[in-house]
Amino acid sequence: MTSPTQTVQMETKSPQETLELGKRLGQRLVGGLVVALVGDLGAGKTQFVKGIACGNGATDPKQVTSPTFTLINEYAGERKLFHIDTYRLRGSAELFALGFDELIAEDAVVAVEWADRVQEAIPEEHLRIEVEAIDANIRRLTFSATGSSPIACLKSFIQAQP
Ligand SMILES: Nc1ncnc2c1ncn2[C@@H]1O[C@H](COP(=O)(O)OP(=O)(O)OP(=O)(O)O)[C@@H](O)[C@H]1O
Ligand SMILES: [Mg+2]
31-51 pLDDT, tens per residue? Predict the structure, then answer.
């Protein structure tokens, strides 16, 4: 049996707007949520996660940088937030070797960039965010939630739109 899915699309017109959108999601996180980010180089995945971290109450947004070289970053806030960039990993096995299972087992939120590269590691219940560059400053974000908890989170996020 496949879990129900809910999808919604939004557009942002600047990096700031993407940050604001991420903030709104960051204010509505649920424990155990896995956010799977997909999109080309420079699409805006990290920018969105910066917003999540801000919304979750990270004290200094400047501390939230791309984790490409540190692999896993942890940000303090309302909930524990892990940010993983899997760009340099060869696949799910390497991600599991980093202790991915333990991260998602906690009452934390895990944001994974390049999630399509580690597809086997992403639990069935997750929030997928595809970021596409439409032109220099316009980004289309497609949110797809699978499973009751991610869907509840997405619904709350949708309702919070101005
Ligand atoms: N509407 C927008 N939303 C987000 N970023 C935008 C937007 N318009 C322009 N940009 C620019 O796009 C870039 C997004 O960079 P970011 O690091 O977030 O991408 P990324 O998807 O994480 O890339 P990578 O795959 O290299 O990690 C930034 O330089 C940002 O200024
Ligand atoms: Mg990035």
Answer: 999 999 999 999 999 999 999
Ligand 1 pocket residue status of 43, Cβ below 6 Å: yes
CATH, range 23-122: 3.40.50.300
Phi-psi region of 23 (alpha: psi -120 to 50; beta: other; left: phi over 0): alpha
Listed in sequence order, the residues at least 6 apart from 60 whose beta carbon sits closer than 8 Å to its beta carbon are none
The finding on whether 31 has its CB within 6 A of some atom of ligand 1 is no
- Whether ligand 1 lies within 6 angstroms of the CB of 12 is answered as yes
pTM of the model: 0.94
